[in-house]
Amino acid sequence: MGGDAFPHTQILKLFADYRGGDTTFEAAFEERFGTSAPEELNAAHRVTIVAARLDEATERIVGYLADLGVPVNAVSFHYYEDDDRRYLARTWLRDEAEAVPAPRAGKSATREPWNGVDWYSTMGEDGGTRSWDDARRFGFISAGGGKWYSQGLRRPRPGQRINLHIPKLGYVGIGEVCGEPTTFADAVLGDGTVRLADQQLVGRYRHTGDENDPDVAEYVLPVRWLKTVDRAEAVWDRGMFALQLPICRLTNATTLAILNSRFFPEHVTP
Predict the structure, then answer these.
(1) Which of 78, 111, 171, 260 is deepest in the core (most CB within 10 A)?
(2) Who wins on pLDDT, 197 or 111?
(3) Are residues 88 and 159 in the same domain?
(4) Are residues 200 and 84 in the same domain?
(5) Would residue 111 count as lying in a domain?
């Protein structure tokens, strides 16, 4: 029961062979289950046998497999009545605290590989703190209101790509990182003469208490946009990757393929 038996890429290939290429795995998963497909597939599995009663043969087989290191257990349920009260009791064959943990495949197998270039970022506009109009005009993305939100802006390096997503709309821009993150108050963009805080902006880029606490401040990461669209033209298809995270690596091949075809159709091979 090796964890690498069905790596992420093989699962996607099996699905493509099954469906004949009429849809993507991510889109079909969302249509069937009503939620986005997980980033990690086939990471860990356990076998649990559920029965009203376990016979001796089943108990011996489960015990034998568990002793060999197979992550398997069995559980039985018993129904009781006491006057007008009813109970459902559960009994595990083997103590779950001592059960063999499921083998975990390496991340390289269970996750799609990262291309070393593309990052996902989301720009929440609710409340007027930030605005795509400003980011598009002056060339930046931003995050703040707490260290957890802003510290991720330090991860992308100059030359790597930002794929910007607006929640409930879709992807609106792809650009190259062209500098290091700084606080909004210190951000200088463009040719080095555009002080962002001195511009007429739609967003506030301020948080309560950020004057005295740099961890709370809004941080700005300079981006040279390669292609942008208006909100009304935001790119979104069922199954595309989206999370409520300020920034993370974008590994979803389906999302990258859709973005490339929509933003840079001239680069797509017929």
Answers:
(1) 171
(2) 197
(3) no
(4) no
(5) no
- Residue-wise DSSP of 227-240: EE--GGG-B--TT-
Question: Are 71 and 103 within 8 A, CB to CB?
Answer: yes
Which pLDDT value is given to residue 2?
Answer: 42
Closest CA to 119 of 154, 156, 153, 167: 156
Q: pLDDT-derived band of residue 53, with 50, 70 and 90 as boundaries?
A: confident
Closest CA to 186 of 202, 210, 169: 210
Residue 204 lies in a domain: yes
Residue 25: inside a domain: no
Integer Cα distance of 62 and 59 in angstroms = 5
What number of residues does the chain have? 270
The answer as to whether 76 is a domain residue is yes
What digits encode the pLDDT tens for the residues 212-225? 788 899 999 999 99
pLDDT, tens digit, 9 for 90 and up, residues 184-212: 999 999 888 899 999 999 999 998 877 77
